[in-house]
Automatic annotation (TrEMBL):
Domain YgjP-like metallopeptidase: residue ranges: 39-242
One Pfam family matching this protein: YgjP-like
Species: Thioclava atlantica
Database matches in InterPro entries: UTP_pyrophosphatase-like (IPR053136), YgjP-like_metallopeptidase (IPR002725)
Protein's name in the database: YgjP-like metallopeptidase domain-containing protein
Length: 250
C-alpha cells in the first residue's frame, strides 16, 4: 500500500507550499499577486532580493508552481547576483577626498571651515562645511533631492508630450529599492538617488516610468513602448541592473 503525498505539488523531492499570497519553493519565498488584467505570469527579483510573481487570477496553483520551477535556476542566479552587488556598495564617509556621485561623475569632497551654505558643488568638488559633517548624509540627500527635482522635471516636460502622457506632478523622494514609480493619479515619482546615475541611465528611468502610464506591468507591449522612445534601452537597463547599486553607498 502506498501513501499519497500530503500535497500533490512537489519539486525536487521538496514540497512547494503555496497559499493565496505566498509561494515557497526550493528555499525561496515569492509574494504572489493575482490580477484580472494579467494574461501571463511573470517573476520579478527586486534589487533588495525580494521575489514576487504576478499571475492571471485564473491560473491554478500547480501551474504557478511549474512556471516557477522552470525558472528556478534563473531566479537563484539573480538572487545571488543581487546579494553580491549589495556587498559591493561601500558606505560613504564625510572625509576629505571621499568621492560622491552626481549625474554619473564622481566628485571629491573638500571640507571647508568657512562657508555660508552647508554644501556646494564648485569646480568639480563637493564643498561641505566642516561644522556640518555630523549632518552630512542629510545635507547630501537634500542637495541631491533638489537637483533631482529640477533634472527630472525637465526630462518629464520633454518626454510627456512625445509619449502621450499627462503628468500631474513630478515627485522626488526615497523610494526604497525602486528608481521610480508611476501612480494612477498621474503622479510620477523618482528616487533622489536616480540623480547619481549617468544622464543616459537616468533618462532611461524617466522613459521607463512614463511608459508605465500606458502599461502598468512589464509586458511585451510595455517594452515596445519604451523602445519607441529609447531604441537602445536594453544596454541602459542592463547597466542599471549591474551598476546602479553604486548609487547606494550614501
Ligand atoms: Zn517598471
Amino acid at each position: 500500500m502506498s501513501k499519497l503525498p500530503m500535497s500533490p505539488i512537489r519539486t525536487g523531492g521538496k514540497p512547494a507550499r503555496v497559499s493565496e499570497h505566498q509561494l515557497e519553493i526550493d528555499g525561496l519565498s515569492f509574494d504572489v499577486h493575482r490580477s484580472d488584467r494579467r494574461k501571463t505570469m511573470q517573476i520579478t527579483v527586486e534589487r533588495s532580493g525580494d521575489l514576487s510573481i504576478v499571475a492571471p487570477s485564473t491560473v491554478p496553483a500547480d501551474q504557478l508552481v511549474s512556471f516557477v520551477e522552470e525558472k528556478l535556476i534563473w531566479v537563484h542566479t539573480k538572487v545571488e547576483e543581487k546579494a553580491r552587488l549589495q556587498q559591493r556598495a561601500p558606505r560613504k564617509e564625510f572625509v576629505e577626498g571621499e568621492g560622491f556621485l552626481y549625474l554619473g561623475r564622481s566628485h571629491r569632497l573638500r571640507l571647508i571651515d568657512n562657508q555660508l551654505v552647508d554644501l556646494s558643488l564648485k569646480n568639480g568638488r563637493f564643498c561641505l562645511r566642516r561644522g556640518s559633517i555630523h549632518r552630512g548624509r542629510d545635507i547630501f540627500v537634500s542637495w541631491y533631492t533638489r537637483r533631482a527635482q529640477q533634472w527630472f522635471e525637465k526630462q518629464v516636460a520633454g518626454l510627456s508630450n512625445r509619449m502621450g502622457v499627462t503628468v500631474q506632478e513630478v515627485k522626488v523622494q526615497d523610494l526604497g529599492f525602486r528608481w521610480g514609480s508611476f501612480g494612477t493619479d498621474g503622479r510620477v515619482s523618482f528616487h533622489w538617488k536616480a540623480i547619481l546615475l549617468p544622464p543616459r541611465i537616468a533618462q532611461y528611468v524617466a522613459v521607463h516610468e512614463l511608459a508605465h502610464a500606458h502599461y502598468p506591468d512589464h509586458s511585451a507591449t510595455f517594452w515596445i513602448k519604451v523602445e519607441q522612445h529609447l531604441p537602445d534601452w536594453r544596454w541602459r537597463k542592463t547597466w542599471l541592473a549591474e551598476n546602479g547599486i553604486q548609487a547606494e553607498g550614501l
